Structures are given as C-alpha cells and as structure tokens.
Amino acid sequence: MGALDYLISNFCTVPRTKTKAMQTVEIKVKMDCDGCERKVRNAVATIKGVKTVEINRKQSRVTVNGCVDPNKVLKRVRRTGKKRAEFWPYVPQYVVANPHASGVYDKKAPAGYVKNVQTFPASSETEEKFMSFFSEDNVNACSIM
C-alpha cells in the first residue's frame, strides 16, 4: 500500500489554480459628472471577481471589493480616459502616530485624512550615543570638553 500511495502522490497530481484573496482596492480619480462616474463604474464592475463598486465623487474616491488584482483595477480605470488615476494615498488621521509631521499633512486630503507616510521615531542608538557623553560615575570624564 505504501508504494501505491507514493506513486499516486508524486505522479497523479492535479495542478491547482491560484485564487486571489478577497480585498479592498481604493483609487483616487477625479470625476466631474454623472457620465464620468457611470463610465468608471461600468469599466470596473465588468472585471472578473469584483463584488461591489462604491464611488464617492465628492472625495474623488472609488472603492472596489472583490477577488481582484489592484493593478488591473487601476489599469481599467485609466483606460476610461482618467490618466491621473492613482491608488488612494490617504489614511484616516487617527491611524498615523504623528499626523502633523512634515510630509504627512496635505491640504488636498479630505477632512479627517492625512497622507499615508511612514514616520519613524528617533532610534535608540542615537539616544545612547548622546547619553554616553556624560558619565555619572566619573564626573570629570565629559566627552564634550
């Protein structure tokens, strides 16, 4: 029985198809009228795997839910004539640790949103370097002098 299992497992395998995971794709695209909105909605809704399409014209935002490739959705939106379409660059303000840091705040962002920029705190190595200038053990061993 062991030899039969070995032969079946190694030689009789069926290739598996790779399925995409369910995800949300958000795209920023300027839409001026109902026609633009309808054109973008119809173009995106016909992609295989799309479950829902939500459009917020006030924020210039298209949200697509489904088992889709984000780059394919962006490419389809650009084919409608919206060449300046891009992935949604904003996140809610409460997600960012320091929303008022340089490069994060954007005047074009909708209310309550800031740019999706990673801000890293100062590393502990630099803090240790500055703290080693002074020694409590030997007061006369100041490195600055």
UniProtKB/TrEMBL annotation:
According to the UniProt record, one GO cellular component term is:
membrane
Top-level taxon in the UniProt lineage:
Eukaryota
GO MF terms listed in the record are: metal ion binding
The subcellular location is: Membrane
Q: Kindly name one Pfam family recorded for this protein.
A: HMA
- Supply one GO BP term: response to stress
What's the chief localization of this chain?
membrane
Q: Which Gene3D superfamilies match?
A: 3.30.70.100
Keyword terms: Cadmium, Lipoprotein, Membrane, Metal-binding, Methylation, Prenylation
Q: Which PROSITE patterns match?
A: HMA_2
Give residue ranges for domain HMA: 22-85
Q: State the InterPro entries in the record.
A: HMA_dom, HMA_dom_sf
The family assignment reads:
Belongs to the HIPP family.
* The protein's name: Heavy metal-associated isoprenylated plant protein 21-like isoform X1
What is the scientific name of the source organism? Abrus precatorius
| Gene for this chain | LOC113860676
